[in-house]
Amino acid sequence: MMVPVGRIIIFRSVRRSDFIRAMNYLALPAMFGSAVGPLVHCSAASSRRICAGV
Length: 54
Description:
mainly alpha; 0% strand; elongated
């Protein structure tokens, strides 16, 4: 739900020529978080063996 709302806000507030660059800034935290999140979780929970399959 957050991506369509963010896209509309960016579409209305950014010039057309900078739209792609602004969308990259919107998508970057989602890509970074989904890639780094499991690693951070497993390193924090390594003493409890929650992430034994990873």
